[in-house]
Amino acid sequence: MAEEPLQQVIVAYGGDIISAISDMIHGFNEMKVIICYSNINRDLLQLLIKRFNMGKINVMAFNLTTTDMQEKYFETIQTKMDKSHSLYTVFFTPHKLHEHIIIEIYNRNLIRRNIFYIFNWNQKPFTDIFVQNVHESMQVLLVSNPRNDVFRLYYNQATSYKEHNLGLINWWNQNNGLFTHPTLPSKKSVYRDFHGRTVKVPVLHKPPWNFVKYYNSSTSSSFKVIGGRDHRILELISRKLNFRIHYIDPLQRIQGSSILENGTFNGVLG
Which top-rank group of organisms is this from (predicted)? Predict the structure, then answer.
C-alpha cells in the first residue's frame, strides 16, 4: 500500500518526478528549499517533502492560490536576500501563474546570484510570455517532461551570448538518474567564449585607469576612450573571451554609491 501513492504520482507526472527534483536539488548542494504550489497532487507534495527531509534538506511550502500567500512568499524571498542567504524555489503551479511569478520577480527586483527559481513545466512547450520575461540577471531553470521517465533541465544562463533564452543543460532518467553532477554547468565553461557579443561598459575620465576625451556640441554629447590601464586590460580580456566593448557615459558622470531603498547603485556602479 505504501507504493500506491508514489505510483499514482509517477503516472500523473510522466515519471518519478520526486526522485528527479530531489536529485537536481542535491546536485546544487543546497540545504534549504521552498516548494510553491497551486492545485498540486497532495501525494506529490507529501512525498517530495518527505524525500527532502530524508536528505536533511529544510523545506518551506507556500500555497499560492491566494494573493496573500503570494505576498508572503515574495516577502520571504526579500528577507533571505537582505540576509544574503542562498535559496532554491521549486514551483508546481499552472503556466499562467508561472508567467505572473516571473514578471513579479523582475518587477520586485528579487534577483541575486544565489536565488534560484525552478519551474516544473511538464510536457507543453514554453510560452513566449514566460521566456521573454526571463532576464539574463535571473537564475531561472525549467524542468520539462518530453516523454515518460525522462526530465530535462533548462537554464537561462546556459550560454554567454543569448538573451531571453533557455538552454538544455542536464537531464534525468529512470535508469541513470541525473546525467551530470553538479546540476549546473561551471561559469568557466559557459563564459569562455562570448561569440562576439557586445558588452556595455560605463567609463569615466579617471587617469591613470581611463583617459576619456569628451566632445560637446549644442545638439549632442559624445566621447572617446583614448587610453588608460583599465582600457588596455579590458581590450586584452575582450580578445581572449571574444566580445566587443561598447563604452557608455554614466548619468551624472560619478563613480556611484549604493541606494539602500532598492539595493541598486547609481553612476558607474549601477
Answer: Eukaryota
**What homologous superfamily is domain 3-187 in, according to CATH?**
Response regulator (3.40.50.2300)
Residue 258 clears pLDDT 60, i.e. is over it = no
Q: What is the pLDDT of residue 218?
A: 53
264 phi and psi, to 5 degrees? -105, 180
Rounded Cα distance between 147 and 149, Å, is 6
- Percentages helix, strand, coil for the chain (3-state, rounded to 5) are 35, 30, 35
Domain locations in the chain as residue ranges: 3-187, 197-269
Average pLDDT over residues 11-37: 93
Q: Which helix (H) or strand (E) holds 141?
A: strand 140-147
Q: Which residues of 145-155 are buried (b: 16+ CB within 10 A; e: fewer)?
A: beeeebbbbbb
Q: Which fold has domain 197-269?
A: D-Maltodextrin-Binding Protein; domain 2 (3.40.190)
